[in-house]
Amino acid sequence: xxxxxxxxxxxxxxxxxxxxxxxxxxxxxxxxxxxxxxxxxxxxxxxxxxxxxxxxxxxxxxxxxxxxxxxxxxxxxxxxxxxxxxxxxxxxxxxxxxxxxxxxxxxxxxxxxxxxxxxxxxxxxxxxxxxxxxxxxxxxxxxxxxxxxxxxxxxxxxxxxxxxxxxxxxxxxxxxxxxxxxxxxxxxxxxxxxxxxxxxxxxxxxxxxxxxxxxxxxxxxxxxxxxxxxxxxxxxxxxxxxxxxxxxxxxxxxxxxxxxxxxxxxxxxxxxxxxxxxxxxxxxxxxxxxxxxxxxxxxxxxxxxxxxxxxxxxxxxxxxxxxxxxxxxxxxxxxxxxxxxxxxxxxxxxxxxxxxxxxxxxxxxxxxxxxxxxxxxxxx
Length: 380
What we know:
This protein is of the alpha/beta class and 380 residues long. The chain has two domains: 9-170 and 347-363, Rossmann fold, CATH 3.40.50; 173-344, Glycogen Phosphorylase B (Rossmann fold, 3-Layer(aba) Sandwich), CATH 3.40.50.2000. It is built from 15 helices and twelve strands. The protein has a six-stranded parallel sheet with strand order 2-1-3-4-5-6, with helices on both faces. A six-stranded parallel sheet has the order 9-8-7-10-11-12, with helices on both faces. Helix 1 (23-35) links the parallel strand 1 (9-15) and strand 2. Helix 8 (202-215) crosses helix 13 (315-327), helix 11 (277-285) crosses helix 14 and helix 13 crosses helix 14 (329-342). The longest helix is centred in the first third of the chain and has 18 residues, at 65-82.
């Protein structure tokens, strides 16, 4: 299975296309951009959500039928693309999405004898691994290497007796315009770019904003995202009597820097999280960050060093942190500057070597007697 030394390693990246906006697709695109014209690696995307031809594409708007149609086109695509790869790099979330997207890719890769790198990104890993014997079995026996973006997830994997290598998410600081914020000016704009799903608890952001508006009525809040809770969140904003809340909806990743550029403070209140790209993007933009201290967030954002943290689902504490930045603008600038400096750790050139190392290890793997997998040696 060794790749010929006279050509680039071929890596098939199995992930959602940008039709499904989220951290997986954005991070995969950044990997693809990084490998473009690279002399060592030839990478391409294998979408888990291929677009069917007309008129079948209309069925994508119908629940359940959407899943069936997607699977009918996804499996043949895997058979066509996986066979060309030296390494199959599969992005993975948790629960039902694991069964519908990563699992088929792992099955097809095994049929062709291709090594699988599972890039697990879900902050819900603890519950998923505890409740799914299928996931535990697959990750232990049929995946050559598990890669996670944070020490938080590595520790979760270790509690289930599974090794994982840590390779951080990347952010391209060149996409973002760093600007020192003057938090003395009014009105100030708060920004959130988390999708409207329960795990991101945007309702807590709205409740915190209500308290901030009591302190400073002319502050505004821009919410960039979409999801199943949009209607409920709009109703909550009305019931709280909020003014100046802008529900932007979903935007393409290329538009995120523009929203960061015009904001003054970034706020997010997830109930569980891993290594959010949104926080790294705020760092790159010079936005002071206020977040709940959940999952892997504290590993990226040290409290009172790179931003301010508050307890989970505590709107009062979130509001207090935001008001603190407004009342101590020099402190906010200090936090943002330290966060921007920390961004260098997540540049592509910092992580490229780690990815290349694991790809090369998998392209000529050392098999073990038990499960036939490459043993992870620790963080890369």
